[in-house]
Design goal:
By secondary structure, the protein is an alpha/beta fold. The chain has 3 domains: 118 residues, NAD(P)-binding Rossmann-like Domain (Rossmann fold, 3-Layer(aba) Sandwich); 171 residues, Dihydrodipicolinate Reductase, domain 2; 88 residues. 34% of the residues lie in helices and 25% in strands. Strands 3-2-1-4-5-6-17 form a 7-stranded parallel beta sheet, with helices on both faces. Helix 3 crosses helix 4, helix 7 crosses helix 16 and helix 15 packs across helix 16. The longest helix is centred in the last third of the chain and has 18 residues. The protein is globular, with a radius of gyration of 23 Å.
């Protein structure tokens, strides 16, 4: 009997745990700092085990890792290197869905020497985005072609019928990570030129992108796209862009929220204050009776602008009570969003992942290839986000469990030995890309 240790019982763990319950020869141990969460996933399955585990208890964590055949780390990304070091000490492979951090990358040589695979970036983005990109790129190269341009967008959004609030966004987990991503600068290549977008301008000029059957979305750049030219093996690419999709209105609103100062994570004492006073202070404005009008004047907007309506809907102009005696503007924004921007029972989320390749061939011909994944959550069941993160991670862990990952080291799924079987497996579970090809000059 093989043993899979799943660390973290958060929102993406369910599809992964159930994937392994389908396999008769596998036991699944689910650990979380909140044992009740783990029990919900393991239930009373005869091959399931749920228990509480604090990752700061290194001895207990090491003992669980030693008893596992593969460890799937779904905990906050800062803990992945901690888990990875214990896996290397015990000679156990690990799978994560997170980006490879510098701390994780530093373990590559040790993992190679030990002969242990540490497989990272096997979720949605990062994960499926890499896999489908490399599938098409390898196909173009096999035909003697060059990839002269690559553009990609990914977004986790409410499905059209669930897009019922003015922000065009809903959270199935804490908003903080989504909000803090707006404080990163972005870099990409456009026709051979490197473009740097400061964090303050990240939402300033979204591209309008139409997706057939769904409408138009705002797209903005995601982190640093430039290294992916080498990572994907396309040094010939003159355009290299990775971005994020949102429903229209999100970018305009988040830019002003940043200018307001509401993404500031600096804590202060709120005792004796009011919500409006704290929000006015974050904006550097007096605590006036009409904060909306003050902001409209600062931003040169009409007092009835739709942007201000969105902020009013969230409660940013109300003189209500504060949720705690201290915190940061970001804490307050997060609590307001959690109160009004969650999915209602029965609502679906939606994943859109869209790649565009510009290929040039030796005979002088060109081709534009669009590869698009659209996936929906199941009302009352798994969200699209949980499926598209949890299932590729499960497929990757199963490859490791079956001994089909033969290369050691810190790995991501950009080679066919990893991406091909994972893409095949998730396709059998309904996660499918649709291709369109057109000739280009």
């Amino acid at each position: 009997m093989k043993n899979v240790l799943v660390l973290g019982a958060g929102f993406v763990a369910g599809p992964l745990v159930r994937y392994f319950f389908e396999k008769p020869g596998v036991r699944v141990s689910v650990a979380d700092i909140e044992p009740e969460k783990a029990k919900v996933l393991a239930g009373d399955h005869p091959r399931g085990r749920a228990f509480g585990l604090d990752l700061n208890n290194k001895a207990a964590l090491a003992g669980e890792i030693a008893a596992a055949d593969v460890v799937v780390s779904l905990v906050p990304y800062l803990f992945h290197p901690v888990v990875a070091r214990l896996c290397l000490a015990a000679g156990k492979p690990m799978v994560t869905t997170s980006y490879v951090s510098e701390a994780m990358r530093a373990l590559d040589a040790e993992a190679r020497t030990a002969g242990i695979p540490l497989v990272n970036e096997v979720g949605l983005d990062p994960g499926i985005d890499h896999m489908e990109a490399m599938r098409v790129i390898d196909e173009i190269h096999a035909r003697g072609g060059r990839v002269v341009g690559f553009r990609s967008y990914c977004g986790g959004l409410p499905a059209p019928e669930a897009n019922t609030n003015p922000f065009g966004y809903k959270f199935s987990w804490s908003p903080r990570g989504v909000l803090l991503a707006g404080k990163n600068e972005a870099r990409y290549l456009a026709d051979g030129r490197e473009i740097v977008v400061p964090a303050a301008e990240l939402f300033a000029g979204p591209e309008r992108v139409e997706v057939a059957g769904l409408g138009v979305f705002d797209g903005y750049p995601n982190r640093n796209s430039v290294p992916y030219r080498d990572l994907y093996g396309i040094p010939e690419a003159r355009t290299m862009f990775r971005g994020t999709f949102r429903w229209p209105g999100w970018c305009e609103t988040l830019k002003k929220i940043g200018e307001w100062g509401l993404l500031d994570a600096t804590e202060s004492d709120w005792s004796g204050s009011t919500r409006k006073a704290v929000l006015a202070k974050a904006a550097g404005l007096p605590d006036s009776a009409d904060l909306r009008r003050e902001l409209a004047a600062r931003w040169n907007l009409a007092p009835d602008a739709a942007l201000l309506d969105r902020m009013a809907w969230l409660g940013l102009f109300e003189d209500g009570p504060l949720p705690a005696s201290s915190g940061s503007p970001l804490d307050l924004l997060e609590r307001l969003m959690l109160a009004k921007m969650l999915y209602e029972p029965g609502e679906r989320d939606m994943i859109i992942l869209r790649h565009e390749f510009e290929a040039a061939y030796p005979d002088g011909s060109g081709e534009r290839i669009f590869s698009t994944l659209i996936d929906y959550g199941v009302p009352g069941g798994d969200s699209a986000m949980a499926r598209t993160v949890g299932l590729p991670a499960a497929a990757a862990a199963n490859l490791v469990l079956e001994g089909r990952v033969c290369r050691p080291g810190v790995l991501i799924p950009v080679s066919a030995d990893l991406y091909a079987p994972i893409l095949f497996e998730i396709k059998t579970r309904g996660i499918i890309f649709r291709e369109e090809r057109t000739k280009s000059s």
